[in-house]
Amino acid sequence: MFLNSSAFGRRVKLLDNRNSNKRVVFKLGGKSISDGEKAKKLAEKVLLELKTGKQIAVVVSAAGDTTDMLIRYCEKACGEKVSKKDLDEILAMGERTSARLFAATLKAQGANTKFLDPSDIDWPIITDDNFGDANPLESECLPKIRSKLEQLFNENVIPLMPGFIGKTLRGEVTTLGRGGSDTTAFLVAKAIGAGEVIIVTDVAGILYADPKIVPNPKIIERIDAEKLANLCDVGAKFIHKKSLKFLDGSFRVKVTSYKSNKLNEGTIIQGFIHGNDVSRENMAMACITMVAEKSSEIWNILSKALEIIKRNNVAVLALTADPYSLKLYVQDAKAEKAAKILHSKLVSDIRGDFLALAIKRGINKALE
Predict the structure, then answer these.
(1) Which residues span the domain enclosing 208?
(2) 368: in domain
(3) What's the pTM?
(4) Which residues contact 200 (CB under 8 A, 6 or more apart)?
(5) Above pLDDT 90, what percent of the chain?
């Protein structure tokens, strides 16, 4: 019987509610396992969690700067003559090697572990064929992840997977784009009903500001996924926005440092992103542009326009302004209503300060 991803998600929550507190997914960032000594110490910390009775799955990134090194190598050796498909095969070797290395590290400390690999016939991360930035097919991934990992949990084995890597239905290796290892970890957590994903990196958590700009910024203890997505929009790279869309609120995420003694410090990411926020790049939008008579009056128009829009229950998806114009981006379906109301109210209320209003519909691409 075919089981779609939403139905599968509900089933996972029903069946695995009893497991949610004891199942943890560790996602190990590249710098946390960049050398053997770091990997050894991190393995000790992971195994301490195992001794508390938790069931653990591990997702690893490529060690250190391996991915960047492979990209630079290909650029110099091949120029633009390497295909995205071939490049994915090459880049995937970073995570595939890390998985083997960390599995060996765990085994050296007496753990019973098994690494999964895209060459396995039951490799569970299935994607489309958008090489270089592939999208996981949840209806394929979730049942496969659950089936494989449940089998290993029943055998008291720690499942260990390379992140970032997928495979098409035809068996071709793909990569998930930057932040792809986070995506893998979130998919695993969703499939097995985990209560927490612990992202182990080289920073102690998400900071209030860039330490290169603001001296000694404090760590944010908790942040909502939606607010974090807004930071991602302007270039903050704690977690890539593409990965955040796989948060469904069924598990929490903790960002911590491999330097932390018990991996219990850092930032907790909670909640999920509403559908409109993660799919805005595909949402039909309209741009309403208002022009002021004088540059000094645009800010007066801004405050009045936002007040009018709010009173009439029209959501502003984005806005931009310059000395003479204000652009409001709204859902295309509500654009005419918003334009009529704004024109009526602004012309009557602001009089000579307001010069003109125009509307452009059918904008389907998110603002960069």
Answers:
(1) 5-278
(2) no
(3) 0.76
(4) 26, 27, 28, 29, 32, 42, 256, 257, 258, 263
(5) 50
